[in-house]
Design brief:
Strand content: 5-15%
Number of domains: 2
Radius of gyration: 32 Å
Strand order of the largest sheet: 2-1-3-4
Helix content: 55-70%
Distance between the termini: 117 Å
Number of helices: 8
Number of strands: 4
Shape: elongated
Structural class: alpha+beta
Order of helices and strands: HHHHHEEHHEEH
């Protein structure tokens, strides 16, 4: 009985090459599918996006490991995924100037404080979703945003508008100077009123 337990835990139910090929095929499919699906899926803007990603993970699980529940089989699958990912990232890094591999600058959603309708429509992002993303980064409203970009990895980058120096800043400085002048003049007046002055 103990022999079966250890065997079930560590002896893969499928050949090692089978597990490696499965992992590579699923990896390649997911990279292409998520690229085609767009940044929105990665951004997880709403519950539906999150559910899709969770279901994808669950759906491809059996395709990746097959009917093998052994620890060794799982470790082989994970190792294959990590190695393939490393090789792909390394290849893209070395050949980043090659056509089709150039880094994507992201979709500009707000430019110079103006909301860009076309990219929002392309990425199927509503204004309320954009506002929610801005809120998560500390902006109370989209009017405070100078520039917003949806990055290739699904994250948002918001840059706030430069706040003009408080209009009252100079005014208060002038008032402070007037107060100091008035103080100095006040000190001079009694001296001028002394006999013999």
């Amino acid at each position: 009985m103990h022999v079966n337990l250890w065997s079930d835990m560590f002896v893969p139910g499928l050949p090692v090459i089978d597990k490696i090929l499965r992992a590579i095929i699923v990896y390649a499919f997911l990279v292409v599918a998520l690229k085609l699906a767009g940044r929105r899926e990665l951004a997880q803007l709403n519950t539906f996006d999150l559910v899709v990603l969770l279901m994808i993970a669950n759906t491809v699980q059996n395709a990746t490991i097959g009917n093998d529940n052994s620890i060794t089989g799982g470790l082989i699958g994970v190792t294959a995924l990590l190695v393939v990912n490393y090789l792909v990232v390394r290849f893209v890094y070395v050949h980043k100037k090659a056509p089709g591999l150039k880094e994507d600058a992201g979709e500009v959603l707000i430019e110079k404080g103006r909301i860009q309708e076309a990219p929002l429509k392309k990425e199927m992002i509503t204004l309320s979703e954009l506002k929610e993303a801005a809120n998560r980064q500390g902006f109370e409203s989209l009017e405070e945003v100078e520039r917003a970009v949806l990055n290739p990895d699904g994250t948002f980058a918001f840059i706030g508008k430069k706040k003009p120096e408080a209009a009252g800043g100079e005014y208060h400085e002038i008032l402070n100077r007037l107060d100091r002048l008035q103080e100095q003049m006040g000190k001079l007046r009694p001296a001028q009123g002394l006999p013999g002055a």
